[in-house]
Amino acid sequence: MTPPDPSTHMFPSLPRDAGKGTALPKVANWAIIGIFLILMFWFVAQARDFLMPVTLALLLFFVFVPFRRVMERWRIGPTVTAAIVSLGLVVSILGIGMMISGPVSRLIDNAPQIGTRLEQRFTEIRRNFAGLERAARKLDELTGGKKATDEQDTPPGSAPPPAEIVGPDVMGTVTGRVTSVPTPGTPQPPDQHIEVQVNAPTESTALGSVMDLGPAVIGQIILTLFLLFFMLASGDLLYLKIVQSFDRMRDKRAAYLALREIEDRLGAYLGAITLINACLGIAIGLAMWAWGMPSPVLFGLVGFLLNFIPYLGPVFGIIIAALVGVFVFDDLFTPLMVALTYLALTSFEGQLITPYFVSRKLQLNTVVVFLTVALWAWLWSVLGMIVAVPLLVVMRVLADHVPGLEKFGNFLAGEDPPALEDEDEEEARELVETGGDTEDMTEAARATRHLSP
Questions:
Q1: pLDDT value of position 155
Q2: CB atoms within 10 A of CB 132
Q3: How many H helices and E strands in the chain?
Q4: How far apart, in whole angstroms, are the C-alpha atoms of residue 4 and residue 216?
Q5: What is the pTM of this model?
Q6: Is 182 helix (H, G, I), strand (E, B) or coil?
Q7: Which bin fits 439, alpha (ψ -120 to 50), beta or left (φ > 0)?
Q8: What percentage of the chain reaches a pLDDT higher than 70?
Q9: Contact 335, 329 (CB under 8 A)
Q10: Distance from C-alpha of 325 to C-alpha of 318, rounded to nearest angstrom
Q11: Which DSSP symbol is given to 5?
Q12: Separation between Cα atoms, residue 31 and residue 319, nearest integer Å
């Protein structure tokens, strides 16, 4: 008796000769890719405390590898170079901390006065717009809404509304008596003594949250510095192990060239951006000093750091400058001019300075950059926004060197993308330009019909 074919039990819909030359059904590639992406994003979000310092150390390693090679030409070993780089980063972090410690301590000491002053300023601003509020209420009445009054009328004979206990830190005991109003002809009930204990949960303040994050941030900084030290001290070991993982000589050469291009582009990008941001920070500090803003050095440092975050960083800086201006000045025109000055400086830098000094090879698709910054902000918060563009630069280099990903690299490129290896670049450009001159779908189909398939 012939035993049953196990393939008929695993795949009942297949014929009995499915295993004899007939291909098994393929699972949809998009489903596998989708599941992989979901699991990858989940893992990246969950392992952020470990992946953030590792990623930052890898990016810094590619930045400082050229410096290590220069030091080797001067007969200085990689261990000494790693120590110099690590100590230099420690000194830079401590210097930035000392620069901001004075203004931050003054802000903490003056926190109650600042809160009172801000409340007064916002009350004055609201009073200035009281006319708009009254007009909105009148419009609501005219459109059939409820009559807006400051106090609700209480019908005669009804009990007064219950008292409210309002406050962020309410905690204690409230005692009193409840007296009811008897109806005519019924005996008056005795007074009832009640006691209510209110225990409001204590809420953590913003300063407390920052203090709670302090040990975790310090631990990640220490991990980053130690990992960077060991990678630089190991010399070319990382490059050697990556190249040895390929079999053919052609693949080994391509992997090594990709690593060298990553370090060249990252070094060029971060070097140019750091220098531009430093000049922008100096300009912002001088502008804030000219307007009479407090702590212009702190404004310059904040502008320098925030400008590493594309698009969102300058927006945060403008909002901070406007809020501080509202607190400092009595009028609204001066804070508006302070915010416009900040906007003018960052716009001049972003539209003219950076495109001129940053190489065209480093220019990226604007929409992709914005979405990448938003994605990494969702995954890793502030540090994610900082490392988003360097990671995008690495992805573009890898796409240019991995076969089959050239079109993805072309998608990541900016206005002047590199030429593709295939022959359809000119045809695609002609198709888009021809269809772009039309107004609707019908005209686009008619205009592009004559083009070669």
A1: 53
A2: 10
A3: 17, 2
A4: 61
A5: 0.68
A6: coil
A7: alpha
A8: 68
A9: yes
A10: 10
A11: P
A12: 43
